């Protein structure tokens, strides 16, 4: 034993050299290349694509979804999921509409939207962390529940007539072509990036996703961390509900229908392992940009919505399958 | 060596007059990375006879069972069935050859019915190729009747107690026309009356001409039902013979019979004042009325058989599970430990036995594993400071002589011994007062083992109090200042270091010679 020889213990370096090689093989770089390719393809295919105002409009395709996707990414990294996010938008928007009927002004409307999101997150988190339900089941249940309430309240009706000051969130511009929504998206991207990658809380999220038993045995309060993530996801759904309601200027119970799967697609495309434990906010940001550009580019080419979903599906499978196919070809056998 | 030649002599002793063995193993060897589990093992099983397999924890008994049942492949040696060489490449092939096992923890399916469990993998089919439920039910009933089990074949296993599950496992063994039945500590979870019923069943199997391999730590039951014995030690067969020819004392001696020959760097540590006092700790099912004290600089060994409740007690002390009763004092202060976070806060930390599941977070880098419980110290206002983390991780991993290429390497890439060093470093970095090490050297290579032992001594000398749960007698004898033996969830004995012999430990753990 080296200790017995009386020598100093051997030095262990912090990091191995060759980080560059690692970065070059990263998922984020792949996404960036795909994004650039789509950007170039779009600008070649449509003469309207490169106009600043068109590009600005394109951002609305992903900003609201991405806000939620950041929180959902953290949930998935921690090994849980929330499929009720789009239903939370519907419920929050509906309750904002009800508040509007009772004469609420913009600050109250925003408060109602955010609070509804938080409460929905609390319900989800309680079902999962206190009652121990699997999150995929619990949130499929609350997905029906939240949107169901919205349908009961509204039926075929819609809430209209939101005040002009409320339009700021979804229709206002901070500067030139930069919308307030894009600003909110950017601020949240940075905030979530810091939260996940630079704080103790974010570290605990990764630890839980990799091994929640060992996390608990290391003193991590696993259930509390998960509860916070559900609350955060609910809150982000509330923020998205404010932005979307403001942008549309009306509330229907079918608002944001099907978004939960687009959001999960965005997260997975962003390189977050659906099994938990790995992924980055940068990846989700890039995935949001890629998905937004694809949808918008196809829209400019007058491709119908149904065909668009075929494209998104193909993109998701393609981006995930290609690295595996390459590895398969290299090793010559199934992984 | 002397021991070896003795062993040879025993092997060569001609078998008593009787039938030829059904199953004979010769020269069986099996190695795992860093561990030689079995070496040159001989074993013969005779029809209508029970052979007891005796050995300490880790002597290689379970590995042998897995080879017999086709779960592991031996690296060397041969298996003969009725004198013809056979191989068991899969569990199914062993079953088809008529070798079945009833494991310590039943490997049955809780959500399937009794009938389904009995016939799983060899269901009779009708002429349409569909499952023949009528026949299965009839046969299941017949088999259950034959072994005197009053169990409804249509209930799911979840609804049955552990004793009934064992009966189902036995029925399953009979349903495949087993010729060799391996019973791996079948009485470990049974009550006294259930054990009596099991004995009767074993007698019935003997009368049917089955060859039975019976693994047990309990000498009373070995002498009650076994005809022959085979003693294992450190992966080798040391003796075999007829039970009628030997005494319990002789078997105990053969089981542990070796000097503590590994070097244990036990240093003299000044034993200080009491740091921890546990009083009447109890759990509804796992342990009862555990009381002891621990002093500064002391290494307190916890010995017992697997399943004696040692790990369960330690996990309660660490706040993972809740005790139903009992108090803990740290220093002079009574404390309540309701979660690992609270235990860590009070300076009690736990290095678990199940390293892969409870200890290391394998996909994450070494540095993140080490700093996890100390993040409060390495961070500022909740924000990570990587430089601090690397410094902390380096301080403790280098002290433990960790072999790794970089601190950002995933822990999963390290050897078992080095993973264990990472887990220990993680806890030392919290600067604990009491460190509980649960089987700290289980499954790790000899070099790392020595490093862990050396370090344990060093820590005690620095004033840390160590609780070491171990099933390895040499480790317990070599490292402990004091040893507590647990049996069936209770304290069975407490011994000082001086004058402690392996025999005393084995007897206290097995409950043999209590009066002495």
From TrEMBL, chain A:
Membrane topology listed for this record: Multi-pass membrane protein
**Membrane-spanning ranges:** 29-50, 70-92, 104-124, 131-153, 173-196, 228-249, 306-326
Q: Where in the cell is it found?
A: Cell membrane
Looking at the keywords, is Transmembrane present?
Answer: yes
Source taxon at top rank: Bacteria
Q: Which Pfam families match?
A: BPD_transp_2
Coiled-coil zones = none
> Which InterPro entries does the UniProt entry name for this protein?
ABC_transp_permease (IPR001851)
Where is it mostly found?
membrane
Q: Key word Cell membrane present in the record? A: yes
- Keywords on record: Cell inner membrane, Cell membrane, Membrane, Transmembrane, Transmembrane helix, Transport
Its annotated function is as follows: Part of the ABC transporter complex LsrABCD involved in autoinducer 2 (AI-2) import. Probably responsible for the translocation of the substrate across the membrane.
Q: How does it assemble?
A: The complex is composed of two ATP-binding proteins (LsrA), two transmembrane proteins (LsrC and LsrD) and a solute-binding protein (LsrB).
- Protein name as annotated: Autoinducer 2 import system permease protein LsrD
- Protein's organism: Rubellimicrobium aerolatum
From TrEMBL, chain B:
| Keywords carried by this UniProt record | ATP-binding, Cell membrane, Membrane, Nucleotide-binding, Repeat, Sugar transport, Translocase, Transport
Q: Quote any Pfam family the record assigns.
A: ABC_tran
- All copies of domain ABC transporter, residue ranges: 23-259, 271-513
- Presence of the UniProt keyword Ribonucleoprotein in the record: no
Organism's domain of life?
Bacteria
PROSITE patterns linked: ABC_TRANSPORTER_1, ABC_TRANSPORTER_2
Indicate yes or no for the key word Metal-binding: no
* MF term (GO), any: ATP binding
Matching entries from InterPro entries are given as:
AAA+_ATPase (IPR003593), ABC_carbohydrate_import_ATPase (IPR050107), ABC_transporter-like_ATP-bd (IPR003439), ABC_transporter-like_CS (IPR017871), P-loop_NTPase (IPR027417)
- Which PANTHER family did the record assign? CARBOHYDRATE TRANSPORT ATP-BINDING PROTEIN MG119-RELATED, D-ALLOSE IMPORT ATP-BINDING PROTEIN ALSA-RELATED
Q: What is this protein called?
A: Sugar ABC transporter ATP-binding protein
Organism equals Rubellimicrobium aerolatum
